[in-house]
Queue: 4 jobs
Job 1
Amino acid sequence: MDPVAQINGYLVLPVGGPYWMSEVIPINNGPLWRETLLGEALFVSTPASVASARAKTLAVIGEHHPLKDDVLLIVSELVTNAVVHAGRGPAAARVRLRLAATRDLLIVEVYDRGSPLGVPRITEDPGAGEGGRGLLMVQCLCEGRWGTALLGGARGRLVWAALPRTDRAPSAAEIIRRRQVA
């Protein structure tokens, strides 16, 4: 396949599937902040979707991307949380994954229906339990650059994480300020 675009030295390749968008779309959030959409996929909210999300992510960023392992772990954690915690039924049947980039960041976004049990948070003391460490790992990998937002109405919830690509990556507070959800 021919590449659709080259972003900061990485190829964005067209990927098959009815929900995958391969075109690169600029997202302008102000004069000093510009996100470029690398890809987007919609998955059925099942445990098998976690592996599919990793595969789609790898197809976009490439096997040799310097942040590959970190991005794949973040995608796994956020999609798993969406599948496990976002509820059940027809309204919860979809999880959307978006990958975006700025000059200094690689951004993973996961949208789901949201949960009636509250907002995603880092467990204070995960102890010996089976779960509770995922967002802590995400926070460590992103150096605190992650967040969540309720989208209002039936639009659900967004959980995002931003991996620094350079030493000039903005702080978590700056990213949150610039990425305000409309």
Note: Strands lie at 5-7, 10-12, 25-28, 34-44, 94-101, 105-112, 146-150, 157-164.
Job 2
Amino acid sequence: MNHPTADLVQAFSETHYTVHREPPFTLRIGQPCTELMPLMAQHGSACAAFITAWNPWSQTLSAAENQARQHTLKTQLRQRGLPFVYGLGQHPSNGWPGEASVLVLGLDRQAAMALAKAHEQHAFVWAGGDGVAELVWPEWAKLLRPDGGRFVRQF
């Protein structure tokens, strides 16, 4: 596992986390998402996590490898009876290809951390009942924003 660089932290914080439903909506880090709250309510959920299995530890894999990893993630979610909606995480301008993802409804923060670790992900997006998207980095305690301020909490 490689540790995230400041550039990677910035890229993750700027990424658009799009949920593919009608109409689609986008989670933006630090911003409330009014479309998310009714979706959570519809499923009786107080929280949601946006996660992928693509590109473990931010290392590029082939499309076939990524698709197989994502299939495994979705199978695990189905086995656990967790509802999810397909999505895509993509930075708006850095040229990194979008990563197939899922928005998992009712996945609490601790369970999302375990899932992210199992699928070798640096971070995931989590939102509680207020619908504010938060970038969670489970492995590192003191990630800083590019301006030097506190970026995220470590759990």
Note: The longest strand covers residues 84-90.
Job 3
Amino acid sequence: MKVRTAITLSAVIVAAVAVLANSGLLQPALAQPLLDEGQLQADEPDGDQLPLFRFFMKRMAARLELTEPQREEIHTLIETQMPTLKPLIGQLMDSRKRLAEINNGDTFQEEETRSLVEQQSNALNELLVAKERLLHQINQILTPDQRTKADQMRGRFEQRVRRWLDS
């Protein structure tokens, strides 16, 4: 069950980015380079709607020592994935809203709930595939040394998630 929670957490991260893109909140962040070497602060006063997302992207870029062409190519990959993610996030948002509506009454609507949960499951599966596709594409841009560093960073992140799940 904990592995499923970790997978769901991963999908939620991808979904959060996609929800922000779908709502238009990602546009200010995408208008600026996600991976520039600017100030690495989580709280940016410039009105950026995604300061934490930008912070982590900048931090990863700095730790991996990405070149400018690599930064631009990764930025383009992220932008390219948004049209794939938006409809999936729309499905998740619609089914979540419908679940709240139908189960707010006096009786539990099990059949419709199961149907909506299955739709959400399918959308989450597609989001996970999109995330893995994006990670694969990014991995192709990295040098062997950068891939090693990225693997180590992912390993440390997974350890933190596992500690959280075990607590």
Note: Residues 2-166 form one domain.
Job 4
Amino acid sequence: MVKIFEEVKKDEIIKKERTLNEIKEAFEKDQPRKLREISNRATEKAMITKEEGLIDISLISYGLSKIIRKPHYREDPEWEEFKEKIIKELEKNIEEEREIIDKIIKIIRKFNEDAGNYMEGVIDHGRKKQASRLYAMGLSLKKAVEITGTIEEELLPYIGATKITEKEHTETMSTEERYQRVKKIIKGKDKDE
């Protein structure tokens, strides 16, 4: 049993390492759309696994996608230094995962505070966005808040102001339907939903 657990853990580490490498490559090539896709994939996986590390990886990818889309960030005198710091952290050994993730988030926050035009930073906005997305995908509001680390009182107005529940792919589900869907996902039987 311990060996199976170790194999699963090793597989997860490999997947996270691949994801961080994808983020690095997309960031180096200035590919905000690719960064957004990586962010969405990590969020969806976090819904199933409830793993905080995946949400933070998703936030990194989301934050970097927002930053490289805005010209005022790239024109900032600190841009090159910021980019070098991010790439350096993404190149580190994945076994220092929590430390790497925390440091990248800190670097993004600092750069956003110094060079950004908005009071709310891309990381905090990303937390609300990811929580809103998880909620729209069928997770309870409480669980979405818990996984993303956002504040419920800040999330509710955000969800109310979005049209995410009006989108075609979004379903409104009863508590029983949500429960059954999560059971299927956990068992690996949720192929077409």
Note: The chain has ten helices and no strands.
